[in-house]
Design a protein that fits this description.
Pfam family, one (chains A, B): Pyridox_oxase_2
Distance between the termini of chain A: 34 Å
Organism (chains A, B): Chlamydomonas schloesseri
Helix content of chain A: 10-25%
Protein name (chains A, B): Pyridoxamine 5'-phosphate oxidase Alr4036 family FMN-binding domain-containing protein
Order of helices and strands of chain A: HHEEEHEEHHEEE
Oligomer: homodimer
Largest sheet of chain A: 8 strands, antiparallel
Mean pLDDT of chain A: 91
Strand content of chain A: 25-35%
InterPro entries (chains A, B): Pyridox_Oxase_Alr4036_FMN-bd, Split_barrel_FMN-bd
Number of helices of chain A: 5
GO molecular function (chains A, B): FMN binding
Chain lengths: ~220, ~220
């Protein structure tokens, strides 16, 4: 969905940080890498892992989770099963802004029985480029490379309407906290969910609170 | 020091990954943000932290550690004291390459008694821009902002030759492992230090081994 259309069709009160992020994406859209972000997780040995991934859009108009994709054979799938905590660092060169988004990850694989998440996995597969889809038919990522088998990399790319390959996983970041740093104006904002009260804990989703903090 | 000059004046056998990184920096130098990298660490609650920092050069011609700067009052200083493990993700848009560099961090503050590290801290302070140096005289980063005191942000910038402010820390990443991913050619290389043998453990620094792995 185009960003302008996405902003226009959202009916509910969208969190301020989501609106800001959509605006930053629009302002930086001439840069091919404005959708590249760095995703940090924690390995089982308590060391951090950090890699560049491509933002594939918000989960839906009503859900502010960020989506990415990964290969079921990649090391991060096992790491996330042991510790789902993640933080994304997202730098926009054109507007000189950084967003940090933290929360927990869900990996949606072929075996996932959640209907909405499975539908999102199929939609993102459909929207991938052909070379993007082809990678999921490649040999096991990260293993020693056997250069004597060039044919392994020339497999035909699955079409958008082909069945989703089992190696294709959707990665969903459920965002709990967002920090925006604007280098041009030296402003910094923290967005956190309002604290639940004893009475309101089971009520509607909590509103986000904005706090200006020192840069 | 200019990158070309840096490459030319190094006498010893430079690790392949350092030479590649210097070449990538030169090929991407038209982009102001080619020296911006994302540094991931682990917080005491076992959640990852991830933020954009500026690469300030290698520690020396003979030491392949990467350097950055931070404020002694920033949250990451306490986090690193509890867990020094870190991974840098570094994406170069022009050449479409990613480096991941992992290892342990050392924070060099005003109290550090290591002569070489203290000299490096002073050198990096000297090489900072005036606005870069000024930030270390600002109010405590990350605390709630008191907008009623705009004067706090207009403090004069310390000159290159002024004494180093106590809040100024050098951050040193001692690199143990490097991975390079080239998106244009779908190549991926892993660089690790050679395993120490029982006899050679106390000998000269171990050589780096390159291994091609599946992208």
């Amino acid at each position: 969905m185009a960003l302008a259309a996405e902003a226009a069709t959202i009916g509910r009160a969208v969190p301020v940080w989501r609106s800001k992020l959509l605006k930053s994406l629009a302002q930086n859209k001439r840069l091919a890498n404005s959708r590249y972000v760095q995703l940090a997780t924690v390995r089982p040995d308590n060391r951090p892992a950090n890699r560049t991934v491509v933002f594939r859009g918000f989960l839906s108009d009503d859900d502010d989770s960020l989506t990415f994709v990964t290969d079921s054979r990649s090391r991060k799938v096992g790491e996330v099963a042991a510790n789902p905590a993640a933080e994304v660092a997202w730098y926009f060169p054109e507007t000189r802004e950084q967003y940090r988004l933290s929360g927990n990850l869900t990996i949606v694989d072929a075996a996932s029985t959640d209907g909405a998440l499975q539908a999102a996995r199929k939609r993102v597969w459909h929207n991938m480029s052909d070379p993007g889809r082809q990678q999921f038919a490649w040999p096991h990522p990260g293993l020693p490379r056997h250069l004597e088998d060039p044919k392994a990399w020339d497999c035909p790319a699955p079409a958008p309407t082909d069945p989703v390959l089992d190696t294709f996983c959707l990665v969903v970041l459920h965002v709990d906290e967002v920090e925006q740093l604007k280098l041009k104006s030296n402003e910094r904002f923290l967005y956190r969910r309002q604290q639940a009260t004893a009475e309101g804990a089971a009520a509607a989703p909590l509103a986000w609170v904005e706090e200006p903090i020192n840069p």
